[in-house]
Specification:
This protein is of the alpha+beta class. It is 32% helix and 19% strand. The chain contains 12 helices and 15 strands. The strands form 4 sheets. Strands 1, 2, 3, 4, 5 and 6 form a 6-stranded mixed beta sheet that branches. A 5-stranded antiparallel beta sheet has the order 8-11-12-13-14, with no helix packed on it. The longest helix has 17 residues. The termini are far apart. 25% of the residues are buried.
Length: 417
């Protein structure tokens, strides 16, 4: 026959049965069952009070825990969570500690347990992630060094009207400088929004965008009318690599939150949608703690630029070593009464020519190398990998107020006639 095994409960019942017979002393029963006298008297007492039910194992959890979260604290956390349904435990705690610093708040793990218990948190499916690509924005160590600009992607409002949000953020502080629905995703719409931002916050050192219109074109250097305007203002244009939105990851992450908070679902019409964008701007900048900012808000870190938007659009000045030519309205460069086609995007703009070999010139627009001009064959070849460059020993490229078109001496000096 196989050995029979008994559970701890069955052992206790057998012990009590032998004790009730009274044939053996408690000490003898303890030796027989291999237990201490304290254990024996404990189970005898429980049996006398509750019968056989008292022989079952009881929970060892304390009846009252001094570390348990106070009801008032639970209420404050749950109320804030209901107001901001997409904030996690750490974000909720950062906000509460900021606004009630004298209150004792529990750990983030405890808050997470509370949210799960109340049905306000749900587990996420874990995904394998690649390491973040941070190199392109590693130089954004102070406000206004780099701004990021992009269109969120259009969607329809409740009345069927199309909404195209244009967003601008500061790369260092994550401050959302503007989120506006524009009528058209063209140069005029983007420029109007940017001018308002420049008047309010000043100008950045660089603006980062993707390679789509109106930020870039297939023209030499990827120039567009919008990026030409930036260069004349002394703003460097940075473009991410095609198919690499992760190179503008901070801005794309903001877009995800923007969509969740303002377009899920969309508002009834454009006016209400724009009001939602304005409310989101305020909350994102001054209310919502950011984990990447050590749970501070962008408004805590951002300061306006000291580069003021000029009243008149400056002209780009070139070093003395360069010849300067103005591109015609047809996009042509005039050379000894003959024309060479450059690009219509540059119509009306001045370019610099730096001779690198006999009759061969590098063509610049500001500090950007566009390609090479052969003055004999009157041909222009665009640089497939446009680069920022300053000729060795040359004066720095700069901008200044436009010269008087009637000043013939100045025109002769720059070679424009």
């Amino acid at each position: 026959m196989p050995w029979k095994e008994r559970t701890a409960l069955e052992e206790r019942k057998a012990f009590i049965e032998e004790w009730r017979k009274g044939d053996e002393s408690v000490a003898g029963l303890c030796r027989c069952f291999g237990i201490s006298r304290d254990s024996a008297y404990k189970w005898i007492k429980r049996y006398e009070v509750n019968g056989e039910a008292g022989l079952a194992e009881l929970s060892r959890a304390p009846h009252d825990s001094p570390q348990r979260m106070a009801q008032k604290t639970e209420g404050a956390i749950l109320k804030l969570r209901q107001e901001h349904a997409r904030w996690g435990p750490r974000k909720l705690l950062a906000y509460l500690k900021r606004h009630q610093p004298n209150q004792h708040w529990p750990a983030a793990s405890t808050v997470g347990q509370l949210l799960r218990r109340e049905g306000l948190a749900h587990g996420r499916r874990k995904r394998q992630r690649t390491p973040p690509y941070s190199a392109p924005l590693s130089h954004a160590t102070a406000p206004n060094q780099v701004w990021c600009i992009d269109y969120k992607g259009w969607f329809l409002c409740g009345d069927g009207s199309r909404c195209d949000p244009l967003t601008i953020t500061d790369a260092c502080s994550r401050c959302l400088l503007r989120c506006r629905a524009v009528a058209k995703t063209n140069e005029e719409g983007a420029r109007a929004v940017l001018e308002a931002v420049f008047h309010e916050y000043g100008m950045p050192e660089a603006i980062r965008s993707d390679n789509g219109a109106p930020f870039a074109t297939s023209a030499p250097g990827g120039l567009s009318r919008l990026s030409i305007w930036w260069l004349r203002l002394g703003i460097r244009h940075e473009r991410i690599k095609p198919g690499r939105p992760d190179q503008n990851g901070r801005h794309e992450r903001m877009h995800q939150t923007l969509a969740q908070e303002t377009a899920n679902p969309p508002r009834a019409n454009l006016r209400l949608q724009q009001e939602a964008f304005r409310s989101f701007e305020h909350e994102y900048n001054f209310v919502r703690p950011h984990e990447a900012l050590a749970y501070r808000t962008p408004g805590d870190l951002y300061v306006a630029s000291n580069r003021q938007y000029p009243c008149r659009l400056p002209e780009i000045e070139y070093p003395r070593e360069m010849l300067v030519r103005r591109i015609s309205s047809m996009g042509q460069l005039s050379w000894k009464h003959r024309d060479a086609c450059i690009s219509k995007v540059l119509a009306g703009e001045r370019v610099g020519l730096l001779e690198i070999e006999d009759d061969l010139f590098e063509v610049y627009f500001g500090p950007l190398v566009l390609g090479w001009f052969d003055s004999v064959a009157l041909t222009f070849v665009a640089d497939r990998a446009p680069r920022w460059h300053r000729p060795t020993g040359a004066e720095p490229l700069r901008t200044s107020a436009p010269s008087d078109p009637d000043d013939k001496a100045d025109q002769l000096k720059t070679g424009e006639v």
